[in-house]
């Protein structure tokens, strides 16, 4: 993990998510797997009222500008 790049992402992404109506439900903390063998180090759950808000957020110019900080600093999976 490249902490310097990831820090740049983490500093900017909350304001972008908020701008599009998103809110964090879960952000970090201990992950305790219940079933299966998936055991992520960190989990983040973000809620949007509509799919349109979600898509607008993650396709926005602001987000696309910072996305490389996440993409080049850590391995992530999004659902």
TrEMBL record:
Residues 3-77 form the DUF1330 domain. It comes from the Archaea. SUPFAM superfamilies: Dimeric alpha+beta barrel. Pfam families: DUF1330 (PF07045). Transmembrane segments: none annotated. This is DUF1330 domain-containing protein.
């Amino acid at each position: 993990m490249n902490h310097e790049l990831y820090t740049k992402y983490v500093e900017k992404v909350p304001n972008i998510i908020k701008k599009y109506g998103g809110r964090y439900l879960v952000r970090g903390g201990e992950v305790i797997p219940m079933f299966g063998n998936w055991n992520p180090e960190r989990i983040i759950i973000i809620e949007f009222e509509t799919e349109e808000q979600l898509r607008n957020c993650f396709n926005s110019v602001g987000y696309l500008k910072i996305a490389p900080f996440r993409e080049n600093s850590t391995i992530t999976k999004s659902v």
